[in-house]
Amino acid sequence: MPRKPTRYTVSDGKLVLTLERADEGGYTVTSPLDPGLITEAETLEEAFEMARDATAALRASRREQNRAVTRPAGSRGTAS
Fold it and tell me: How far apart are CA 80 and CA 78, in angstroms?
C-alpha cells in the first residue's frame, strides 16, 4: 500500500506554503519563499490564515528592525 505524503506544497495565488504533518496532529507550516515564516495549523484554510498573520507580523518586525538600524546615532536621545 502506498504511503501518504507527509509534506505538501500549496498556493492560493499569493502565498506558497509547505505543510508538513506534525506527529501530534495538524501541520507545521513554512514557506519556501520566506524562511522566517513558521506557524502551525489544523487545516489547509487555517494554514493560510495563520501564514497571512505571520507574514504581517514578520513584515512589521522587519520594518522596525530596519528603522533601528538606519537611525542616525544622535537620534536616540543620547548626548553627543
Answer: 6
